[in-house]
Predict the structure.
Amino acid sequence: MLLAYALQGALVATAAILAWRWQGPEFSWAALYGGVTALANIGMLLHRWFRGRHAYHSDVGRHLRQFHRSSLERFFVVGILLATGLAGLRLEPLPLLLGFIVGQFAWMFAMLALKTD
């Protein structure tokens, strides 16, 4: 999974470089910020996954509560990061969201390409 995460980061960086060449620096910085937000989202997912591998238990209710908490944490962190980029840093909305979408798709494609769990 870490190799897929590294591949996701490389794809986000490549997309930002291409955006710089085609659209200019403002578009590129916004797209990079969106991509880094996607990286933060997956980073939190990986953190939970690694912790879950070592803290094993068989309580179904506890698994469900942890899953729910993890999804809410990731939702709020992504929301806060995107809101900070839009309102706080005044980045362009379209490239920021496109960068986030590219980052999320990069994760899916990296996982499919590497066929990891």
